[in-house]
Amino acid sequence: GLSWYAVKLGEHYGLYDYGSELAATALKLVQEHSYDVTLTSTLVACDQMFGWTHPIDHALRHARRAQERGAIGGDIGMSCYAWKHVTCGLLFRGGNLAAAAEEIDRGIAFVRSYGFSDIERILQAQAYYCETLMKGISATSPSVRASFDSALPGTQSAPSGLVAAMTAIYEGMCALAFGDPAQARKIYRDNALNARGLRGHIAHTEYQLWYCLAQCTDPSPAPEIVRELEEIRARFAHLSEINPTTFKHKHMLIEGSLALRQGQDLLAISYFDQAAINAGAGGFIHEKALAHEFLA
């Protein structure tokens, strides 16, 4: 309970440092008193909190441990949930897409065997994202959304808000990668309400980062969009102070994109240069490449 209270402190009040301390305390209590029945859930909460305040690999280790512990200890539901945390962490960190895709495929097989269809659909979207970037199969696709929909397991039910928001992250990223910013803007705007449900997880910063990059390609955004972009800028400025290794370069990408939209090319170059340097230092090679693409 303490660890998930910590998650809510971060989600609703932005108390990431305090929340991480509480989550670490909860994990220590569980381990010291052998509360094995709650260990998997506590590890997942720790992953969710540590992503805000620690290097992403530190958080990812807790997600992996939760997935393994849940599978061994019989907490299958939380183990399936942990798989989503593992795969989200892998794609957030960047790196070898083929290795990530292989791990995502293992996760799909695991959660499918226990009937967790929502988590399976999220992992399917992630798998398609990896395949798209590795093979370029969406480069000539008339609809990125149709491609993602075809990759998801057939079901008569509409996707949950969580599934829709997570899928939108990867759809929008693919749309931008293959030169369709208008489609990316539509994807993100259509899922704006669903994305609010992600605020407790660092996946929400992925949504906000790519939403901002997409909106900055619009030369005449509506006033409410401009206000949203300023709110996102302020949030990333705050996060980059809490955890510069993870968020500084993302903040610089946003600043650079906003400067570029305003015609401040020299300022944008400075921001993108800082983004490349910080992304490289933190090991986020995919976002270092993105910064270099902007610089080019």
Structure write-up:
The protein is mostly helical and 296 residues long. The protein is 79% helix and 0% strand. The chain has 16 helices and no strands. It has helices spanning 2-13, 16-32, 39-53, 56-73, 76-93, 97-113, 117-135, 144-151, 161-177, 181-190, 192-195, 203-215, 223-242, 244-261, 265-282, 285-295. The longest helix is centred in the C-terminal third of the chain and has 20 residues, at 223-242. The radius of gyration is 19 Å and the shape is globular. The mean pLDDT is 90.
Record keyword descriptors for this entry.
single chain, 296 residues, mainly alpha, 79% helix, 0% strand, globular
Sketch the topology as an H/E string, one letter per element.
HHHHHHHHHHHHHHHH
Helical content band: over 70%
**Biggest sheet layout:** none
Mean pLDDT: 90
Strand content: under 5%
Segments where pLDDT lies below 50 for 5+ residues? none
**Basic shape:** globular
Cα end-to-end separation:
49 Å
Global structural class: mainly alpha
> Number of helical runs?
16
Radius of gyration: 19 Å
Q: Compute the number of strand runs.
A: 0
